[in-house]
Design goal:
It is built from 11 helices and 15 strands. The chain has 358 residues and is α+β, with helices and mostly antiparallel strands. A hairpin with a 6-residue loop joins strand 14 and strand 15. Helix 1 packs across helix 5, helix 3 crosses helix 4 and helix 5 crosses helix 10. The protein is globular, with a radius of gyration of 22 Å. The two termini are 34 Å apart. The structure holds ligand EPS.
Length: 358
């Protein structure tokens, strides 16, 4: 569970279900948080934030206690919004950012639907929580999940596939530069691969147990994601069965992995492969048509500092989302209050199915 507004005092996360005895790697969490900020298309906001995690509960001397782990990441930018985003009724003269209400919703952001749904007169009350700023906490949680998965020999890594239709590093930069010059934004595609997951994570007992469904929900839950596919996904719909499925070799491994490591919502021992498609970001420096919610007059949507594209950040955030879901599935399968029980159950299971991780 997380809480936090983009320009409020802090992002908060409470992580439950971790076994006792897991040593957290503080540096690894900071590295993941820095990776999320580093993309070429990010806004100046990213130089402002330090994104360091403080732990408030659930950890002693760097080791989990098997109790809820409480994390906080403070928003440095809040200093510029102290009056505008004050949790309590602000005192003194209005100063800094966020002091006047926003009434011109941006197409593509939470602005209009959020203002209508929650009866907000100021669109800021909707956009602050919907903002992708909260992905910083999701990355911290994903980093913890990766630490747990590492105990089972599972690794998870995300990468950019496309930005603005370009599929190599130089093309991404050119496309980002062009969009910046034209005061426009871009989207893209990322891929996450998890290696070393044993067969048998997830289930087909109920549709909500299916790990592919859970991964899709986790990825679709990330801001600006409009499409998700597992393995060859949509391309499979255009092939024949004889070309679509991954034949089983004598050692029970597969020569191909079109299924993306998931059959019937259960891992099959091959790498888990998921892709997510991100739409172009909705805050445009050349704004689209909108309507003033106060006067009903046509107008131009809100313009404020934003990213040109955040696809590199999505690769890190998607990696965290996949790690979190895999860790949850592993906890369901192997249980255990203490890490030693969890790891032991995994080892016993691998022995029963005579499965060796590569
Ligand atoms: C975002 C708008 C921008 C992004 C933000 C997501 O915020 P700001 O207006 O403060 O520059 O920078 O992302 C982050 C702050 C972050 O840490 O990822 C939005 O509207 O979703």
């Amino acid at each position: 569970m997380t809480a936090g507004e983009s320009h409020g005092p802090a992002l908060v996360g409470i992580l439950t279900g971790l076994p006792a005895g897991l040593r957290l790697d503080r540096e690894a969490i900071d590295i993941d948080l820095a990776r999320r900020r580093e993309g070429y298309g990010r806004s100046p906001r990213q130089q402002l934030e330090a994104d360091q995690v403080d732990v408030l509960a659930g950890l002693r001397h760097g080791v989990t206690l098997g109790t809820p782990l409480a994390l906080v990441i403070r928003n440095r930018d809040h200093a510029n919004w102290e009056w505008g985003m004050s949790p309590w009724h602000p005192t003194g003269e209005a100063s800094g950012k966020g002091t006047s209400p926003i009434t011109l919703p941006r197409p593509g952001h939470a602005d209009l639907a959020g203002a209508l749904k929650f009866a907000h007169d100021d669109v800021r009350n909707a956009l602050e929580r919907a903002s992708a700023r909260q992905t910083a906490m999701h990355v911290a949680a994903g980093s913890v999940a990766k630490g747990l998965l590492a105990e089972l020999g599972v690794t998870v890594s995300g990468r950019v596939v496309e930005i603005g239709g370009a599929d190599d590093d130089a093309g991404w930069r050119d496309a980002t530069d062009a969009a910046r010059t034209e005061r426009d934004t871009l989207g893209g595609v990322v891929e996450v691969v998890a290696e070393g997951a044993p067969p048998g994570l997830g289930s087909y007992a109920e549709k909500s147990d299916r790990l592919d469904a859970r991964l899709a929900a986790a990825l679709m839950g990330i801001q600006a994601v409009k499409g998700v596919e597992i393995g060859d996904g949509f391309a499979l719909a255009r092939t024949r069965g004889s070309e679509a499925h991954d034949e089983i070799e004598p050692d029970r491994r597969r020569a191909t992995n079109r299924a993306g490591g998931l059959e019937a919502g259960v891992t099959n021992g091959e790498p888990v492969v998921a892709r997510a498609a991100m739409k172009p970001l909705p805050t445009l420096m050349r704004p689209l048509r909108s309507v003033d919610l106060e006067t009903g007059e046509p107008g131009e949507a809100l313009v404020e500092r934003s990213d040109v594209q955040a696809v590199e950040a999505l690769a890190v955030v998607a990696e965290a989302a996949v790690a979190w879901e895999l860790a949850r599935a592993a906890r369901e399968k192997f249980g255990g209050d203490a890490l030693v029980d969890f790891v032991g159950a995994h080892a016993a299971y691998l022995e029963r199915i005579a499965w060796r991780t590569p």
